[in-house]
Amino acid sequence: MSENETTIEESLAEAQRAQELDPLSPEIVSQVGTDYLFTRRYDESIAQYQKALDLNPNLPAIRTLLSWAYAMKRMYPQALAEYDKIAGQDKAVAAENQFVAAALVGFMRSRAGGPTR
Asked: Measured between alpha carbons, how far is 66 from 51 in angstroms, rounded to an integer?
């Protein structure tokens, strides 16, 4: 295991302990999701982000991370749906992450055999 993997695993363990202490904090739940995302445990990551959004659906930054997790699983329609929700919640966050939507559209078109632009 590399030093970076150890650090991520330690971060995950710490975030899980924090979640046990405060299970209703969307920020802590989201951190567990991010650690899962970095360890390529996408299903667990998606579940954590969805749980965080159940706690507070008005957090576009968490939707952005959920969109990335969906994209990593090649669940492009779900990723774009989350991006659309971001755009409806916070135009500034959507603008900062517009490359996400562009990349997802390119992936979807390439999968369908269409032009990527």
From this structure: 11
Domains of the chain: 1-57 (1.25.40.10), 60-117 (no CATH)
8 Å CB contact between 50 and 18: no
d(CA 44, CA 40): 9
pTM of the predicted protein model: 0.75
- Non-local CB neighbours of 66 within 8 Å, separated by 6+ positions: 33, 46, 49, 50, 53, 82
Residues in the chain: 117
Per residue in 95-111, pLDDT (tens digit) is 776 666 667 667 666 76
